[in-house]
């Protein structure tokens, strides 16, 4: 079950959150290749966030999925979610991060036990994806 948690310092008062939820849910399902019936999206607004030393509009997201994630998929998800955040909340792509957790079920006898290695993908204005040391993803 993919779950996308989005937090932003933007107030959601007067924002059509239903559009954000439906667009994000459809994008996650399509890109990961899982039925949308299993996708969960959570959006939290007015969360205190400082990024780059300022409190200008910013957002942070975490996407957890049991399988379906890869470097290519993560790039597509980052771009899709960044577009939604930018269009619906006016958060620039350069002020949005999306962290990935690829949960692996530990075995058939323990279906609820997962390990979660993380992948962290910053989203930048020019559409490239870079690690902290400047390497591309």
What does it look like?
There is one protein chain. The chain is α/β, with parallel strands linked by helices and 137 residues long. It has a single domain, classed as Macrophage Migration Inhibitory Factor, CATH 3.30.429.10. The chain is built from two helices and six strands, in the order βαββαβββ. Strands 1, 2, 3, 4, 5 and 6 form a six-stranded mixed sheet that branches. The longest helix is centred in the middle third of the chain and has 19 residues, at 71-89. GO terms for molecular function: phenylpyruvate tautomerase activity. InterPro entries: Macrophage_inhib_fac, Tautomerase/MIF_sf.
Mean pLDDT equals 85
What is the chain-wise order of helices and strands? EHEEHEEE
Count the DSSP helices. 2
The helicity comes to 25-40%
Distance between the termini: 25 Å
Please name the fourth-level CATH homologous superfamily. Answer: Macrophage Migration Inhibitory Factor
| Backbone shape | globular
Percentage of residues in DSSP E strands: 25-35%
Assign the structural class, choosing from mainly alpha, mainly beta, alpha/beta, alpha+beta, or little secondary structure: alpha/beta
Q: How many separate structural domains? A: 1
Biggest beta sheet summary: 6 strands, mixed
Alpha carbon gyration radius: 15 Å
């Amino acid at each position: 079950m993919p779950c996308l948690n989005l937090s932003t310092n933007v107030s959601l008062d007067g924002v059509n959150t239903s559009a954000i939820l439906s667009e994000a849910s459809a994008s996650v399902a399509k890109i990961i290749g899982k039925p949308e019936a299993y996708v969960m999206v959570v959006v939290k607004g007015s969360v205190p966030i400082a990024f780059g030393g300022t409190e200008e509009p910013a957002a942070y997201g975490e996407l957890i999925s049991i399988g379906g994630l890869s470097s290519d998929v993560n790039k597509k998800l980052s771009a899709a979610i960044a577009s939604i955040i930018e269009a619906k909340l006016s958060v620039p792509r350069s002020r949005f991060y999306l962290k990935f957790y690829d949960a692996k079920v530990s075995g058939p006898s323990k279906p609820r036990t997962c390990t979660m290695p993380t992948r962290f993908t910053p989203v930048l204005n020019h559409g490239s994806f870079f690690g902290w040391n400047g390497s591309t993803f």
